[in-house]
Amino acid sequence: MPNIAGKNQYGDKLYPPDDERRAEFDQYTRESLPAPDQLARLEAKFGLKIKRSVLYQLHKRLSNSTVRKNELDELDMSQAVINVKENDIMGLWVLGK
Hints:
- The chain is elongated and about 70 Å long.
- It is mainly alpha-helical.
- It has four helices and no strands.
């Protein structure tokens, strides 16, 4: 029997606004939360029960930075490397090795 309404058994989701979600995802990135913990927090805070694939789609759509894909420019990356070299206690980041 065809589904005239065009909706599955789960119904419509009430997603929070993009700015709230973006701020929440940025917090998850700062805490390095894995996906299952992110899903649990979304359900606890917003009552949003989604699957992992939808979580990844939301991250991609909002283009949040992650630990691997941060959006630092070249100057900030260079400064981060300089800071690591300056604070190297063991002397392993010495140039000319």
